[in-house]
Amino acid sequence: MPDRGRAPLLSLRPAQAADEDFLFELYRDSQANDFALLPLSAAQRDFLVRMQFQAREAGYHTTFPEAADRIILGGGKRLGRLLVAYSEREIRIVDLAVLSTERGAGAGSFAIGEVLSEAAVSHKSVRLSVLKSNSRAANLYRRFGFRDTSENQVYVEMEWAN
């Protein structure tokens, strides 16, 4: 568990090719509960997780080819990812993930704060989608002033207006 008494120095840096294994482990970590329920061998589960990760990454690069992919660092250690797409009118948080062992220690809040600071300076709104089942993340966004704008069976769309 992270040391909740002293937050490590948090920062962002651009993701690099050398981060691919970390990004895969971060994805595996974030999907662990869902994939654990599948009646598969460990090898089959690993193969499926790898395929899902590669499909998601390809989708991100196709849909948001100019997105800024950043690694969230705490005391020099990789804690998570922030993938952000910019357009003329808005900033979209495409993906924000923090290792399960590091959640609750401020890395996600730090990343959101960085995006909101950029949005305030550029006078843009910030949009994102969050899984309806991820109430912890949705509540974090609401604490930062995001409001629900729409929803479907899977996602809640949220917006922060400058």
Features:
globular, seven-stranded mixed beta sheet, 4 helices, alpha+beta, 162 residues
What does this structure look like?
With 162 residues, this protein is of the alpha+beta class. Helix content is 40%, strand content 30%. It has 4 helices and 7 strands; from the N terminus they run βααβββαβαββ. It has helices at residues 20-36, 42-63, 107-122, 135-143, and strands at residues 10-14, 68-74, 77-86, 90-98, 125-131, 147-151, 155-160. Strands 1-2-3-4-5-7-6 form a 7-stranded mixed sheet, sandwiched between helices. Helix 3 (107-122) links the parallel strand 4 and strand 5 (125-131). The protein is globular, with a radius of gyration of 16 Å. The termini are far apart. The mean pLDDT is 91.
Secondary structure layout plus pairing:
Blueprint lengths: L9 E5 L5 H17 L5 H22 L4 E7 L2 E10 L3 E9 L8 H16 L2 E7 L3 H9 L3 E5 L3 E6 L2
Parallel strand pairs: 4-5
Antiparallel strand pairs: 1-2, 2-3, 3-4, 5-7, 6-7
Helix pairs in contact: 1-2
Strands of the largest sheet, in order across it?
A: 1-2-3-4-5-7-6
Radius of gyration: 16 Å
Principal-axis shape: globular
- Structural class by SSE content: alpha+beta
Outline of the structure:
With about 160 residues, this protein is of the alpha+beta class. The chain has 4 helices and 7 strands, in the order βααβββαβαββ.
